[in-house]
Amino acid sequence: MIDLRNLVTVFVTTVGYPTFDACLEHLRAQDSQFTLQIIDHVAPMSAAFQRMLDECTTPYYVQVDEDMLLYPQAVRTLYERLVAAEPRTVQYVAVLYDAHLERAIHGLKVFKHTVVHRYPFRNVHGCEWDQIRRFRAAGYVDIRAPLAGATRHSADTLGLHGTLWTPPAVYVRFYVLELTRRMGNRTHGWLLDAAPMLLDRFLKGPSEADFYALMGVLAGSLAETLTTGQERDYRTYDHTPGFASLQRFVEEARQGWRDGTAVEPGQHDIDLLRDNA
Questions:
Q1: Which of 15, 118, 188, 206 fits 234 for a cystine, CB–CB 3.0-4.6 Å?
Q2: What 3 state SS string does 76-110 have?
Q3: Contacts with 94 (C-beta within 8 Å, 6 or more apart), sequence order
């Protein structure tokens, strides 16, 4: 087992999501040793990322979300890929297999801390891309593993994502994805194919995760892009535009209509226009 404890810190961000324990279990099963730190209930997201910059004491660090389940070789591979890249490369982004979308996505990142600490995160929508633009302007490079042809078990795929979704989490995820796509982020173009796939899958076999994901896409397509200036904050997820109304709709649909009497197939409710005439 390779000892990376003086070279790599793995930061795991958590807000108490159900997959947190599984995430740690997969990290304990890695084929390398490293320094591990937990970023616990820090918000907004930009503040959690900044905590990594401030607290890292190793030359490299890995950013892991609590909904990522990494394969045993993941941390070692991330380190080896970044070290092998040209010297001005300061970020490498690996592939994860999203179990919900049934497709490969980007998400798992390793950074050269000795450089990126000069580019602090700002509390703006898309804080990670904001940082990337600034270090790119200074001549540094970020690399992304190719998605084309990537599968659950291909060489560039280093773990799983999206193995479990709660209604607010999946709604916010797809709300933000669609909003970000509309704001011009070309890395989110895959959503144009994923959304129809989710709809087709929901029509064939309805699931709560697919329903909330689709409603998130719809809400993101209607949201005003000019008024979303700050980064995501888990404390406000329940206040994401449209979510509270959607929850009420789902609750009422499950309980049946609370007012009025049920009608048989082919019947209709009172015609209010006729009765008020």
A1: 15
A2: HHHHHHHHHCCCCEEEEEEEEEECCCCEEEEEEEE
A3: 74, 77, 78, 81, 106, 107, 108, 109, 110, 145, 156, 157, 158
Domains of the chain, CATH where assigned: 2-161 (3.90.550.10), 167-255 (no CATH)
DSSP bridge partners of 93: 109, 144
The pTM (predicted TM-score) of the whole model is 0.82
Q: Which two tokens stand for residue 182?
A: 């509309």
**What whole-number distance in Å separates Cα of residue 121 and Cα of residue 90?**
15
> Is the CB of residue 121 less than 8 Å from the CB of residue 131?
yes
Instruction: Give me the pLDDT at residue 7, please.
Output: 98
Q: What is the pLDDT of residue 252?
A: 80
pLDDT digits 0-9 by tens, 145-158: 999 889 999 989 99
> Which residue in the block uniquely carries the two structure tokens 């970023």?
39
From the list 7, 15, 23, the residue with the least C-alpha distance to 48 is 15
Mean pLDDT computed over every residue of the chain: 87
pLDDT at 229: 52
Could you count the other beta carbons within 10 Å of the beta carbon of residue 152?
16
Are the C-beta atoms of 162 and 98 separated by less than 8 Å?
A: yes
Give the strand pairing for 32-33 and 2-3.
parallel
3-state secondary structure of 249: helix
Distance between CA atoms of 13 and 40, rounded to whole angstroms? 6
Helix, strand or coil for residue 139?
Answer: coil
Question: How many CB atoms sit inside 10 A of residue 82's CB?
Answer: 21
- Reference 48, options 267, 250, 234; nearest CA is 234
Other beta carbons less than 10 A from residue 239's beta carbon:
10
Give me 53's structure tokens: 């910059």
